[in-house]
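Colleagues,

For the teaching module next term, I've prepared a clean inverse folding example: a structure given as tokens, and then the sequence designed for it. I'd like students to try predicting residues themselves before seeing the answer, so please don't circulate the second half yet.
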């Protein structure tokens, strides 16, 4: 398990690629469950739990849908399990990284800037994963990750924030 976490961390450092992840459906399921568990853990705030779960689900479903659409268009569907596993695994690593920043974020301003850097780093990593999965230049993979985050924020705003 430590080797898998190290592989996900190496992907976060852009040293490894999604194709280095084993094409295992069990690892896919474990990675997705770990991502959801940690995402829920860092968002446990007073409020509507159903809304929080929906926001997490929307983000993950959107990035998976964009990856799947790209893989389908490029005829690389055989890379699907590895790509989704890499996205969930690196998402889990980022949840682990931001947890302490969120705990102290209210008291000091410095962690807020670190959160912004981690957010940008996450976009770069998603772009890196998509670049390799779709056999595109980095700028195209990063562009897709920017499109993803823009679309995600629009969906959240329309469906969840506007209704509040």
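(Answer key — instructors only)
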């Amino acid at each position: 398990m430590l080797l898998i976490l190290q592989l996900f961390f190496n992907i976060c450092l852009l040293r490894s690629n999604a194709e280095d992840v084993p094409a295992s459906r069990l690892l896919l399921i474990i990675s997705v469950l770990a991502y959801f568990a940690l995402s829920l853990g860092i968002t446990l705030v007073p409020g509507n739990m159903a809304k929080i779960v929906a926001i997490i689900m929307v983000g993950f479903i959107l990035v998976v849908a964009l990856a799947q659409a790209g893989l389908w268009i490029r005829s690389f569907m055989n890379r699907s399990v590895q790509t989704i596993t890499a996205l969930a695994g690196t998402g889990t690593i980022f949840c682990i990284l931001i947890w302490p920043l969120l705990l102290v974020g209210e008291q000091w301003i410095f962690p807020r800037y670190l959160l912004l850097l981690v957010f940008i780093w996450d976009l770069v990593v998603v772009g890196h994963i998509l670049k390799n999965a779709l056999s595109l230049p980095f700028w195209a993979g990063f562009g897709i990750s920017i499109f993803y985050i823009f679309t995600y924020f629009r969906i959240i705003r329309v469906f969840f924030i506007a209704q509040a």
